[in-house]
Amino acid sequence: MDIILGYFLYGMSLLTVGGIYALLALGLNVQWGFAGLFNAGIAGFAAIGAYTYAILTTAESKFHYGGLELPLLVGDVMAMVLAGVIAGVIGLICIRLRADYLAIATIGIAEIIKLVLKNESDITNGPRGINKIPRTWEHFSEERFYSSFPLNVINSSDSWQMFFESIARWWWQPFFAGTIILIVLFTYVLLEKLRTSPWGRMMTAIRENEMAAAAAGKDVTRRRIEAFILGALIMGLAGAFLGQHLRLIEPTQTFDPSKMTFLVWVMLIAGGSGNNKGAILGAFLIWFIWSSSELVTNGMIEILASIFDSVDISILKNRAGFIRMLFIGLLLQIILQRFPKGILPEKRPAVSGKI
Amino acid sequence: MWESFGFEFINFYFIPGLVLGCIYALGAIGITLTFGILRFANFSHGEIMMTSSYLTWEFIMIFTSLGILAHPLIGAIPASICAILLALFVDRFFYKPFRNAPTIMIVIASFGMMLIIRSMVQVIWGPNQLTFVKGIAKPNAYIRDLTASFDFMLLIPNKHFSILIGTVLIMLLFNYLLSSTKIGKGMRAVSDNPDLAKVSGIDVENIIKATWIVGGFCAAAAGVFLAMDTQFIESTMGFRMLLPMFAAAILGGIGRPFGAVAGGLIIGLAEELSAYPWLGDGPVISPGYKSGVAFSIMVLMLIIKPSGLFKGKVF
Amino acid sequence: MLQNRILAVENLVAGYGETEILHDINIEVAGHEIVSIIGPNGAGKSTVMKSILGILNINRGNIFLESKQITGVKPSDVVKLGVGYVPQTDNVFVSLTVQENLEMGAWTLRSGLENKFDEMYTLFPDLSDKRFQAAGQLSGGQRQMVAMAKALMLDAKILLLDEPTAGLSPKFRHEIFSTIQRINKSGMPILMVEQNAKQALQISHRGYVLVDGSNRHTGTGTGLSSDPEVARMFLGSRGSV
Prior knowledge:
Oligomer: heterotrimer
Strand content of chain B: under 5%
CATH class of chain B: Mainly Alpha
Low-confidence stretches of chain B: none
Structural class of chain C: alpha/beta
Helix content of chain C: 25-40%
Number of helices of chain B: 12
Radius of gyration of chain B: 20 Å
Structural class of chain B: mainly alpha
Number of strands of chain C: 10
């Protein structure tokens, strides 16, 4: 029974993190797949989302300002807004230039965000990070939430406390995973509507032939900034949920600029850039491969160790994470060269005569 | 004047800034050459730098185990050959397939290479810092005494001296290559106008190989100089250099190698001088934000003059 | 078939991607000839040039240099085989000096570079005292000469000029046309595409009129410029030249 429960909870966590990555991939798809904008600072936008959410919703802390104890929904929304605002500023500066410049600038922005998070420790608690970030659903079992609106209307604090003590500790996990999946689906439906809307067709036209679109009187720069902001909004939200999932965030490891950004890129390209379904599929697939590659590499190291018993496996074990990264990197190169369109290639919305 | 202002400024801010600037300049040469000739922002350039410093460390270890006490610059010779081979290998198998594809494909590929190379280094040498050169670098006594006799005391450690001289020598060599050799002129031609180069009968693939050799060599030099300066190596050092190098290349104008050198020096100096107490007692910019200086200069340049100081290309 | 044929384009069908621009083109150039291709905008004149050079995909048809098939050969090899090509725009390396430009034109030349330089400075005396100036600093007409000299550096069998006088003032235009004649007199066959049809035909031995990607008229230079229909269509409405 415990084993089944273990698998169930493992599955829930795969769904949770897979869903968060699916959101990031959908956000990137708006920027790259729809508008052809290269964002190499995905981790930065996720970090803004996570920190905004954390500072707004956590309980007061004696280590740093913030901990405003605002409702979780406010945190989610503000996470999106702030990521969007920063995207807007970057967009205004360098979206006119070719994709490479934007890539460089976004890498830079991610670095600056990291610097701010590390240095402004009055607000962000610096390298020690922010702890006890309230998770949606699970937060109800914290006293601060069940003793206040809306739960306090239904029942008294004491009976809520008894209730939460009586149910399984993991009760919130399926709800949390389900909520993220629902958000992914909602975002998907929204983006599909957008893709086939006049705005989406215009994005395709701009990406295909910028000059023709500009000549046809389209405000190319404005459309692209819109796409960049929209993608960042989604990434900000994903960041907020990543913060909730992890509960403890800090500037360097959590938002490792290369690792996270890179994984999302692999996901989108593997799934099929330009295709929202592909983005979601790629996210879950690559996350599954990434998670299971831990087992595989560890298994292989064990086998190696049993064959050559003179080898000290502790070194390899310490470095297993890098072998996985190497593997994912090679996977990207193979996909790029052999299957550049991904598993689900982009389906063009029927571009009628009008752009 | 020298006692109250110059001594501290020159020795603790200006010279370190110049040294850092030299390192950025060497790195930026490779960035601007590939950007100009292959038309893409090479994200894996910093990793070639980093790998060279690890290789140098490894060669020093090998030499030491053979009973030869080797200076880092001796270890750097075989290491830079390996770095060049690595750059050529990466181009052949990971970039060349995209020669006729949209450039962004090659940017993504180079982004991937960044991770692949770094992971490989981490697998081989582990994730922790390694000591490159032991001990505290003492100022060169001869220069100190000589300049002190003119009331102009300069404290330059030997490592800084080697880096400054080394950079000047590489620049002279590089200048000779670009202005006086056929392959160098070809590199300038392809950077100037790749389509015309093709219909002029220039062998562009050979030029591309030469570009990787020159860029790889400069990256190796930059990596070793950086390791000599900081006296330790770590797997993230290449990535840390990437942004200042891009900033230097953009500041100097894309496709302008000597612009990149100027840009590198400016960025290096700006980073170090930003810590000088220009106003009051504390540094102008908190040291924690030092690495943001390069980025700010780059963004400023992209806003006011994307073609850089020396009329580079804007794509 | 012409006597002493240097270049031949036979039944050429080509275009960009799926769009077919040239439907069935036939062009021949004999040794010592100046041949002009004229026609209205969008007739596919420059496309013919790009097809010969191998920049474009050729769907059907053949291109011969002397008796050698060069259909589908890549640009750098076409140049090595002896086709000198001067593109319409961006035809010099602006940041290189005049002499460096010439050197780039002679990339595959193994020896005799100095002699070639002298030859070019005799052919283009204007360039002689500008040899160490950046090509980007020269006037439009002088740049055009650098471009031609560059294309002649490898012992070209034929010179292809894509609108050599586009964007030049009348004075320079005249100079370029007389330079073209001078190059031709030195024994170089020339195939050019020209917008200034009138002047081009005057110096040409023969001309081709292209319309909508097909041959419309063929004739001698003077014959075509006195043809009333050609005159009405492309030479302005004032009748014959």
